[in-house]
Design goal:
This protein has 587 residues and is α/β, with parallel strands linked by helices. It has 19 helices and 15 strands.
């Protein structure tokens, strides 16, 4: 918004002296000196036939007068730009009066399908499901905020080996006797049964080859929709999904579609036929595969020790489309899912997946098959956003004290417990809903402020602080503003004016915060928005400590202060909505 206006002024001046190259503006690294800076005179001086500083001075001399900015050419060849108080005041009014705080939406918003759930039925959700849900929900809201049309799909894992393992274990435990004519009593499959059966079967399959082979055969029968295996599968799904929905709801993750791998099963044969027609499918050790390696491609192998030399695997292995027994794999259903999505949603512009970065090779294989076969149109972008792991203070993936994987439900209860303790230490009564909002905000902000692809240390005590760079600090700032505004609601609305550097610092932080949305969009990470929103809240805190809004006796000044608070509230509300963090009524 502001940088575009500055760039237009600079480029108009450059044209007057015969310069056709475009000048760009960035935020100043030294805000005490100026708000923005143009550094292009160094590289354009030779083209202009002038010394760099001389070029900067000529551009400034040819600028159209604009009361919103002050321009100055300084050694060695910078153009420094400051917002005047008139410019600051216009900025504040624009943020207050604009629907999106002055944030410009993309002129040609794209249609996007965002896949970020990935919970498996018949299995308990665990902390590994936290990051894709947190990151995916925020990225979805960011896209929508900037003008994309987004369909979110949970894409349940409901068609793989875990189903065969679970059913076979239930069968051997006698739970499924009714379905096989061994009992007249109708069988009830409960979540408690599944929570016991799958871990038992999974552990057993790693040491019992016969059991695993039988489970694979059972899985194939489910995939072929043979009875009673398919009916049992539907019972398992019916028992699992409500709990999955409740866990995601507690995290504030909202999905438009609740499809699973099973829903793409009707498209598998068509997808394989398309691949085969293109001549891509061939037999390898009994399986049907597609070669996807490119020339001279190396795949880095994980290092056991950071000091050891990097080793590579070459070439990329083929994508397995059908196993030797005829069963389809994860890659096959993902390819069929892309075909399904293109048919149901008329070839969206982008299909994006948010999963653990360790699945990068899998998605590379899937995307290449879809592009080679034409299942994905040439102009469609397929993207995998790989996230790092959430680690404990020991630097290893987060576990329970006993060393097991922490259930997502237990994590949510831990958030409530810890946030409740924090509230009590601040002299407040325990409120479960409030504790949940604060706990979830702490966890989300603690996650999102990190680059998506990086691992990070989960430190809930640190994340729950009401001071510093945390989610509760942003919530507390918003609650404080709401409290002040409630006490001055009868103040007459007047002109937005700037009276001090504290207000100017808030408005500078507002500009940086608004610019961070586009940074996040390009980087597919919310870190920049988290950091800039904290800076905005921090600037407001300084203003709050130095000025009394309620006690201000100058009515014109008080009215302007109220406008400033409304502006900050609006900016915070927009950012917290994108981050999927709720603002409680009190804290």
């Amino acid at each position: 918004m502001i940088t575009e206006k500055i760039e237009q002024l600079l480029n108009d001046a450059a044209k007057k002296i015969g310069l056709s190259d475009s000048l760009t503006v960035s935020f100043s690294n030294m805000p005490k000196l100026c708000d923005f800076q143009c550094n292009d005179c160094f590289k354009l001086a030779k083209t202009a036939g002038l010394a760099p500083l001389e070029l900067a001075e000529k551009i400034v001399a040819n600028l159209e007068k604009d009361g919103d900015f002050y321009f100055e050419a300084v050694k060695p060849a910078f153009i420094n730009i400051k917002l005047t108080d008139q410019g600051f005041e216009k900025l504040g009014q624009t943020i207050l009066s604009s629907e999106n705080c002055g944030l410009e939406k993309h002129k040609n918003g794209q249609r996007v399908i965002l896949d970020y759930g990935g919970a498996n039925i018949a299995k308990t959700l665990h902390v590994g499901h936290l990051r894709p849900a947190i990151i995916g929900e925020a990225i979805k809201r960011l896209y929508q905020q900037l003008g994309d049309s987004v369909i979110s799909d949970v894409h349940l894992g409901d068609w793989g080996l875990q189903l065969g393992l679970t059913e076979l274990q239930l069968f051997e435990d006698g739970v499924l006797d009714f379905y096989f004519g061994k009992s007249d009593k109708p069988a009830e499959i409960t979540l408690e049964m599944l929570n016991e059966a799958y871990p038992k079967a999974s552990t057993r399959s790693k040491v019992d080859d016969v059991f695993r082979e039988k489970a694979e055969e059972w899985t194939l029968k489910i995939q072929k929709k043979e009875q009673p295996y398919f009916d049992i599968y539907k019972k398992i799904k019916d028992a699992s999904v409500p709990k999955i929905k409740a866990n995601y709801q507690a995290l504030g993750a909202q999905f438009d579609e609740w499809y699973g791998e099973s829903d793409s099963s009707d498209y598998v044969d068509e997808a394989i036929a398309i691949i085969e027609k293109k001549g891509l499918l061939h037999e390898s050790d009994g399986a049907m595969v597609v070669d996807v390696a490119t020339e001279n491609e190396n795949i880095p192998l994980p290092k056991a020790d950071p000091q050891e030399p990097q080793r590579y695997k070459n070439p990329m292995p083929p994508a397995i489309i059908k196993k030797s027994n005829g069963a389809v794999l994860y890659a096959t259903t993902d390819i069929a899912t892309i075909l399904m999505r293109n048919k149901l949603h008329n070839n969206p512009d982008r299909i994006e997946y948010i999963t653990d970065q360790r699945q990068a090779m899998h998605f590379t294989q899937v995307f290449r098959v879809c592009k080679l076969s034409g299942i994905s149109p040439e102009n469609q972008q397929l993207l995998h956003i790989g996230h790092g792991t959430m680690n404990g203070k020991d630097g290893k993936p987060f576990k329970t004290r006993e060393g097991g994987t922490l259930k997502l439900e237990d994590m949510i209860n831990l958030l409530i417990e810890k946030a409740g303790e924090k509230l009590k230490s601040n002299g407040q009564e325990f409120d479960r809903d409030l504790a949940l909002k604060i706990g979830v905000a702490a966890m989300k902000f603690g996650d999102l402020i990190n680059n998506v692809g990086k691992d990070y240390v989960f430190d809930l005590d640190k994340f729950l602080s009401f001071e510093g760079k945390t989610g509760p600090y942003l919530q507390y700032t918003a609650v404080r503003i709401n409290s002040i505004l409630a006490k001055v609601e009868n103040v007459k609305e007047g002109q937005f004016k700037v009276y001090s550097d504290d207000e100017r610092d808030i408005l500078r932080a507002a500009v940086r915060q608004l610019s961070s949305y586009e940074v996040c969009y390009k980087e597919k990470s919310l870190a920049a928005l988290c950091a800039s929103t904290f800076d905005l809240a921090s600037a407001f805190s300084t203003f709050y400590n130095n000025h009394s809004v309620i006690g201000e006796t100058d009515e014109e000044k008080k009215s302007s202060f109220v406008q400033l608070l409304k502006m900050v509230k609006k900016l915070l509300a927009q950012a917290l909505h994108v981050l999927a963090i709720e603002v409680p009524e009190k804290m």
